[in-house]
Design a protein that fits this description.
The protein has nine helices and 28 strands. It is an alpha+beta fold. It folds into three domains: 145 residues, Beta Barrel (Lipocalin); 102 residues, Lipocalin (Beta Barrel), CATH 2.40.128; 141 residues, Lipocalin. The strands form five sheets. Strands 1-2-3-4-5-6-7-8 form an eight-stranded antiparallel β-barrel. Strands 9-10-11-12-13-14-15-16 form an eight-stranded antiparallel barrel. Strands 17, 19, 20, 21, 22 and 25 form a six-stranded antiparallel β-sheet that branches. Strand 14 and strand 15 form a beta hairpin.
Length: 430
């Protein structure tokens, strides 16, 4: 019996030795990865009319691109990021590299990098992270007519599909650029943007970076609200969800045209023609908002602050308050002293260890009007308040006789909008 067992063990050892001598793969790891990279390279250059692409950054929204790759590591592209990127073709470089898995790298600054740029001034995202997008992608799945990729840093989804000649023509003939005219809604200088469509008035708020649009309208004296994301298509925009208001259904806009002189956008929704222009007051004034804003800070023995000062006539920080040396924020402090409010810039102290007040304006408790405005008047000053410059201009703006409407944008933020022309406002954060 022992001899039988020993013989069996010997056979197993011989079999195991034979298996160890036989390689699992017929090619080395380098050969296998090079073969994979060659397959992806061949796929990228295989479409003579290029690739249509969709990318979804971490911040939200859907962005469209067009790519055409060649065998010299060059790529030309269009993008619906803005009117310029939709109109003008851009060439940059790319490369395929083995980084744990096959990776497509756009290695010179291109339209794709606009989404990932850490400067929020470029894309409207967050400082330091942009729109949470990528320009290095792991090649996930290769199909006959499409390629699926994942961003290396932010896990951005990128899908390439072979483009038709018509789809290429739509970029080259300006159809996508025509659609991007909708971006000009941001160029309407009034805080309030009013859409009139089929005789119905809507107040709209557009967030370009996340491609979100908010509609508000009156129904029986009550404000209705609808939020949807949108995406661009050749010639217009399409809503992810349709707006249904009684017999009116809005699925998107087409035939969009910007009138610079008139500061308005004309458009169509189906057979209905519409126009987006500036409004001078809210569609329905929140009569209690000014007092609620003031009372919130007063009850908490705290203040409201703004880091950018007044926006005026299309210009952020129009008076340059942030240019004051060591400037930190502009504040409004209800009941800083009994029956006296404080309006003042706050500065970082010379040691860099804290904040300090150098001067300020003593403001009466605001007049809260029956029609929903707050009107500010001055009592005097704390310290020597400047007569000229950013602080002086900001104070003059605060004291306009028409006062301000207040728009609550969150539990801890309000926009204070000039009742004079609605082209001037300031955002207050608690």
């Amino acid at each position: 019996m022992k001899r039988i067992i020993l013989n069996m063990l010997s056979l197993l050892l011989i079999f195991s030795a034979c298996r160890k001598d036989k390689p699992v793969f017929d090619k080395s790891p380098d050969e296998r990865i090079n073969k994979t990279l060659s397959e992806y390279q061949a796929a990228l250059i295989s479409s003579p009319t290029g690739w249509k692409a969709t990318i979804i950054p971490g911040s939200g929204g859907i962005y469209h691109y067009y790519f055409r790759f060649n065998n010299e590591n060059r790529v030309v592209m269009y993008s619906d990021f803005d009117t310029a990127t939709a109109k003008h073709q851009k060439e940059s470089s790319y490369r395929l590299k083995a980084l744990q898995q096959p990776t497509l790298i756009f290695d010179t600054y291109s339209y794709l990098h606009l989404l990932a740029d850490p400067d929020a001034g470029v894309n409207g995202g967050s400082y330091g992270s942009g729109l949470l997008s990528d320009f290095e992608f792991s090649l996930d799945t290769l199909y006959a007519d499409s390629i699926i990729l994942r961003g290396k840093m932010n896990n951005t989804r990128l899908r390439l599909e072979k483009a038709t000649q018509q789809e290429l023509d739509e970029w080259q003939n300006g159809k996508w650029a025509d659609a991007l005219s909708f971006i000009n809604v941001a160029n309407i200088k009034n805080y309030f943007k009013r859409l009139n469509l089929g005789g119905v008035d809507y107040e709209i708020t557009v967030e370009p970076s996340s491609r979100t649009i908010i509609f508000q309208w009156l129904s029986g004296g009550v404000i209705k609200r609808f939020v949807t994301t949108y995406l661009y298509k050749p010639g217009g925009i399409v809503f992810e969800s349709p707006l249904i208001n009684g017999g009116q259904t809005i699925t998107g806009f087409s035939d969009i045209a910007w009138n610079e002189a008139g500061q308005n956008l004309t458009l169509k929704s189906g057979s209905q023609s519409g126009i987006i222009a500036g409004g001078i007051q809210p569609l329905k004034v929140d009569l209690n908002a000014p007092k609620r804003w003031w009372q919130t800070a007063m009850n908490n023995e705290a203040y409201w602050e703004s880091f950018a000062g007044f926006h005026a006539n299309g210009v952020d920080d129009a008076f340059g308050i942030s240019t004051l040396g060591s400037f930190y924020s502009l504040i409004y402090w209800p009941e800083y002293d009994p029956d006296v409010d404080l309006f003042a810039p706050v500065f970082v102290n010379s040691a860099g260890t804290g904040l300090e007040l150098k001067y300020g304006a003593a403001i009466n408790t605001p007049e809260f009007t029956a029609d929903g405005r707050a009107v500010f008047t001055i009592l005097g000053t704390y310290g020597t308040y400047p007569n000229t410059g950013p602080a002086a201009q900001s104070l003059i703006q605060l004291l306009i006789s028409q006062g301000y409407y207040f728009i609550q944008t969150s539990a801890t933020s309000y926009d204070m909008v000039s009742a004079l022309d609605a082209k001037t406002w300031i955002t207050w954060n608690f």
